[in-house]
Amino acid sequence: MLLRRAFFIAAVALFSSTLGISQTAQESAPNQGTAAAPPPPAAASQSPEQPQKEMPPDTKAPAPVPSAKPQSDSIPTSTTENSQPQLLKAGTEFRATLDTPLSTKTSKVGDRFTATVSAPVRSAIGNVIIPTGSKLNGQVSDSDNEKLADAIKDMGHLNLRFTDIQLPNGTDVPIDATLISVHRIKPATRTENTTPPTISTNAGLSGAFGPPLKGLAVGNLAGGGYVLATTGKQVNLPADCGLRLRVDRNTPVP
Which domains does the chain have, with CATH numbers? Predict the structure, then answer.
């Protein structure tokens, strides 16, 4: 009897214990569901090692920056071409008019003189390389040829040597030129119902070359020439007389 009662008490206690555990599990189940809910996934951070594929919605794409052109493209080709010297070829003829008179009476060896280029001198391709108005510089000199000097010592003569041409921009171009002939200048002609031409400081710029000066002969010398008197013993080259010359050697002109 006592054994049966003890067994009954133990069964009741076991049942009560099982019932308590079941209720505790049911009460804790909702709390665990709430606590176990994972937080919303955070926005994936942009990896610094990977390029950004999409721009943020409130950010504008930067304006494209034009690339600078190479410096060589900005240099005009004409500047480079114009910087190359041009060639005044040997044998080229040109004209100039004397600025001051020369005479066997007043001119001495060593005296310098100038003449003004009266027509543009062009290169083989037609470019003007010696402009009108350039100055031809020369000097009264002795003849280097002893035989010639002896032959003309009793005749009136002037030996002329040309040294350089000064361009309007101030550039000096050394030159060897031979005197071919000496001319008088024809005055510029006037037509009716026109205003008279303005008289310039150098009449050779407005007039054409006439016939050679009478009573004179020209001897050709490399780098110059000599003017002989064929009548009398005096040589007079008036101002504005025309000089026809020939270039002796190829000459670069900047």
Answer: 89-188+201-253 (2.40.128)
Amino acid at 115: A
> CB count, 10 Å around CB of 122?
15
Inter-residue contact 98 to 244 (CB < 8 Å): no
- Please report, to the nearest 10 degrees, the dihedral formed by the alpha carbons of residues 202, 206, 212, 216 taken in order: -10
User: Is the pTM value of this prediction over 0.85?
Assistant: no
Residue 62's pLDDT band (cuts 50, 70, 90): low
SS3 128: strand
In sequence order, the 6+-apart residues with CB closer than 8 A to the CB of 212 are 181, 182, 183, 184, 218
CA distance 231 to 199: 33
CA dihedral for 196, 198, 202, 208, sign (positive or negative): negative
- C-alpha–C-alpha distance, residues 160 and 227, integer Å: 8
* Neighbour-count burial for 201-210, b at 16+ CB within 10 Å, e otherwise: ebbbbebebe
Alpha helix positions (H), the chain: 2-36, 77-82, 146-152
- Residues 138 and 114 sit within 8 Å (Cβ to Cβ): yes
Q: Which residue has the higher pLDDT, 228 or 41?
A: 228
Q: Give the dihedral of Cα atoms 241, 244, 250, 254; nearest 10 deg.
A: 40
Instruction: Indicate the helix (H) or strand (E) that contains 115.
Output: strand 112-117
- Tokens 């016939």 appear where? 211
Please, which residues bridge with residue 88 across strands?
251
d(CA 100, CA 116): 10
Provide φ and ψ at 95, rounded to 5°: -125, 145
CB 165 within 8 A of CB 173: yes
